Task: inverse folding
């Protein structure tokens, strides 16, 4: 959020002209504005939820590089290794549907409490694992617990964030994946010199450290104002928005505008259907388009080729002649630092660049990188030239540059934006579930394919990335410069029917024509 500016042009790019006109013309940056500083600090709790996922992938890469870990589990075959990795997304897949129901019924925070407790339990069992079965069960619990954290956290961030910050802070959410990855990678690198069972048990236990911290501070995070409004608790929503968006000013025109927009949109959605189900994701053409986009993003979050780097970097490095443990663990650590820098930079620029251009440029870059990576890997397979192997490593980093610049900020932020409130929880669940099914399949297929056919397997991802570019070109709209409620018109057409504001900032009954803000409000 360090690049957030107060210029009128930047505001209009981020939230559109109507809402930008109501934002305070305050020259002070957010970190010197007390209520915004407090809001962004409490949002750090859900913001770091995806760090647990990043920790897991990086840790498993690191553990596979440790001879002591491989020996303790009797040198797991490709199928056993695939099972160890696959049970994590399997647990997450089954947990995410229960999470969606819990979050819509009881609020965004309750499933997070459940998730943090499960992650702590799973980390303890994993660190104390006595055999393969116990290790697998622990990872199943970790995956199940992750669902209760990964689904509601970005939704809570998007529904609670200050309007000017929403796009960027939601985009930053997935960047913390790499914070977890860095901790795991360098932690594993440090413990790799112990030459005892603690070289892998310590990183396993540490996986529960961040959930402990988040569990302690979750109490201070307010509930989603949109969820409160949907449950008829308008006064509580007003109090939260006034405190965190207007510094306690209950008569703020900005808060009045936000409340009118939220109340009108949610009331309209609830009038159309008082009870929603997953079938509603497919009942209308706009919803089918939304759901298809969410599933495409979820699928390509794994099958863009990233999964073989995230979980099987050791096997990839083996194919280009980098086989010593120290080098493999070091490369894993360096990639995580690189990932974090690129993903945060991209997230901070997302409102300036726009979602659609970022998708198209990044996918084209990933495709070109994979083509070069494949060709050089084929050359190395015949020549075993160390220089060629190092060139492959360079293109792996280039691929990560484009992946981190697109998927990291938009893997969850984009699906969250495109769904209306009543379908947001289920829509994000479908995107996450699709991603987990794709990941489960890849966890079994990737190690076997890399072992059996080596570099030829990369051709699959070249084809898939070319298809992905075409899908984005024809299906993905630009959502930049709109509030969550206004994005509905991109898919449904016309203005969303929400309340109007009178000159005192009070909401009037909506007439179905959309938001109107009279001149008195913005003087």
Result:
């Amino acid at each position: 959020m360090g690049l957030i500016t107060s210029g009128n042009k930047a505001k209009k790019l981020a939230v559109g002209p109507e809402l930008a006109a109501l934002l305070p013309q305050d020259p002070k940056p957010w970190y010197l504005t007390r209520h915004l500083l407090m809001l962004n600090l409490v949002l750090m709790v859900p913001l770091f939820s995806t760090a647990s996922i990043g920790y897991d992938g990086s840790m498993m890469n690191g553990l596979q590089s440790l001879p002591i870990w491989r020996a303790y589990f009797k040198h797991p075959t490709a199928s056993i290794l695939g099972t160890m990795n696959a049970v994590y997304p399997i647990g997450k897949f089954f947990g995410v549907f229960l999470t969606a129901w819990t979050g819509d019924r009881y609020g965004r925070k309750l499933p997070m409490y459940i998730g943090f407790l499960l992650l702590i339990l799973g980390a303890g069992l994993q660190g104390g694992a006595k055999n393969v079965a116990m290790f697998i069960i622990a990872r199943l619990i970790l995956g199940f617990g992750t669902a209760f954290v990964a689904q509601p956290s970005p939704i809570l961030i998007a529904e609670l964030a200050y309007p000017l910050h929403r796009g960027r802070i939601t985009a930053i959410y997935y960047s913390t994946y790499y914070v977890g990855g860095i901790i795991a990678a360098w932690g594993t690198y440090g413990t790799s010199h112990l030459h005892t069972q603690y070289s892998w048990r310590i990183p396993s236990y540490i996986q529960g450290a961040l959930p402990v911290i988040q569990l302690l501070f979750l109490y201070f995070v307010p509930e989603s104002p949109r969820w409160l409004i949907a449950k008829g608790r308008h006064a509580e929503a007003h109090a939260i928005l006034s405190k965190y968006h207007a510094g306690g000013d209950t008569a703020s025109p900005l808060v009045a505008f936000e409340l009118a927009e939220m109340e009108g949109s949610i009331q309209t959605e609830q009038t159309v259907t008082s009870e929603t189900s997953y079938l509603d994701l497919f009942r209308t053409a706009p919803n089918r388009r939304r759901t298809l986009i969410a599933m495409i993003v979820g699928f390509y979050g794994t099958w863009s080729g990233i999964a073989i780097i995230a979980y099987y970097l050791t096997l990839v490095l083996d194919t280009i002649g980098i086989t010593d443990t120290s080098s493999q663990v070091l490369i894993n650590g360096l990639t995580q630092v690189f990932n974090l820098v690129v993903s945060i930079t991209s997230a901070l620029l997302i409102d300036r660049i726009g979602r659609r251009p970022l998708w198209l440029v990044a996918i084209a870059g990933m495709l070109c990188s994979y083509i070069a990576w494949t060709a050089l890997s084929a050359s190395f397979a015949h020549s075993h030239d160390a220089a060629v192997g190092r060139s492959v490593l360079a293109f792996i980093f280039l691929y990560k540059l484009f992946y981190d610049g697109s998927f990291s900020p938009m893997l969850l932020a984009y699906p969250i934006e495109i769904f209306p409130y009543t379908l947001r929880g289920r829509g994000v669940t479908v995107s996450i579930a699709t991603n987990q099914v794709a990941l489960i399949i890849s966890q079994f297929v990737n190690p076997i394919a890399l072992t059996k056919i080596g570099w030829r397997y990369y051709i699959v991802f070249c084809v898939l990335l070319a298809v992905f570019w075409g899908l984005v070109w024809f299906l993905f709209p630009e959502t930049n410069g709109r509030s969550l409620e206004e994005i509905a018109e991109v898919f449904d057409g016309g203005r969303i029917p929400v309340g109007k504001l009178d000159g005192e900032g009070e909401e009037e009954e909506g007439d179905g024509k959309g938001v109107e803000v009279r001149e008195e409000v913005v003087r």
